Amino acid sequence: MLRPMSFEDDLDERLRELTARGLLRDPPALDGAARREGRAGERDVVVFCSNDYLGLAGHPMLVAALRGGAEAHGAGAGASRLISGTHVAHRAAEQDLAAWVELPAALLFSSGYAANVGALSTLVGPGDVAFSDRLNHASVIDGLRLSRATVHVYEHRDTAHLAALLEAHRPLGKRALIATDTLFSMDGDLADLSVLRGLADRHDAALYVDEAHALGVLGAGRGACHDAGVRPDVLVGTLGKAFGLSGAFVAGSARLRALLENRARSYVFSTAPPPAIAAAVRAAVALVAGGADARARALRHADRVRAQLRRDGWQVLDGRSSIVPVIVGDPAATMAASRALLERGYFVQGIRPPTVPPGTSRLRVVPTAAHTDAQVDGLLAAFAALRAARPLAGAR
Length: 396
Ligand SMILES: *Cc1c(COP(=O)(O)O)cnc(C)c1O
Prior knowledge:
The chain contains 15 helices and 15 strands. It is an alpha/beta fold and 396 residues long. The radius of gyration is 22 Å and the shape is globular. The site of pyridoxal-5'-phosphate (PLP) has 14 residues, from helix 5.
């Protein structure tokens, strides 16, 4: 079906197709200092869909650390890390982060996306085999694609399936790696890390974990691996979620750090993160370390929301984290529910394919430590009103 079409007409057609499928995204722009309340257009809204689990993104001590870092070190790094962009603040942050996750070394990246793409494409390549959970984050999937290793996808959290794939395909690769999110971002469930560690050991594979949503939250803030007593070979942590900042790190042995520093292209060929962000990492680690009350508050809110929404008849996935997925199914119905909540002053973004599998569009509700009981009450009342107005939305 070859037909000439102008560049702009082609863009137009693709956007119209997304619109027709209910998949066009048009997020509101929030205003305001904290990530908990904001203004969307003319409306004051309470935000219930951030990853700012501990409420640190707007924390005065973290804001002060970032400001202090900028005043001391300037606004930008000026170059990539391997040219002149490495600042003592980067090295200090890497040491703090490695110590926090109890591994020997860490390397900072500009984002979790860059960390996964850079690390995975360095660690495995053509002739190697990788085993990846079906619901791994897009950046893990993209990193493995870019690596050109042979990738075997196992069903979500299905360690028996993984064991069978390892049995069949591990011998065909030189290097082998098992990659998984620890706390899955859209479902809020956990990988069985002890079993994965055992399988990795038995099959001479490396265990690569992405702790983006668990770091700061589980294992007293040190992550799901710490919680499970499992030592991964490679641990990716992000700083933009519970740490309230931006950026990411890869932690593991000193050898791992050295190889990534030399070969990970998203690290080598990218301007270093601002030293001010690196300088603020120490404050973030201290806040996370002292964050037991915040963690308890966030989980208490989540338990309440989960229980009440379920009582009200919504289809809510199980879990023990701050992530409360409310499955609606149809993308258009999901967005209608999201809009209706926004009209009542509660912002819960709808999550649609390709972020989640078709047919499982959802409202991913995230109460954080920064929310008050009254705000959670208000959210639950808004959900109840929505259900009264549209009795079929999200019905079991
Ligand atoms: C958010 C996320 C990333 C990407 O991290 P950014 O710093 O936002 O680029 C990577 N992996 C997982 C599992 C995530 O949830």
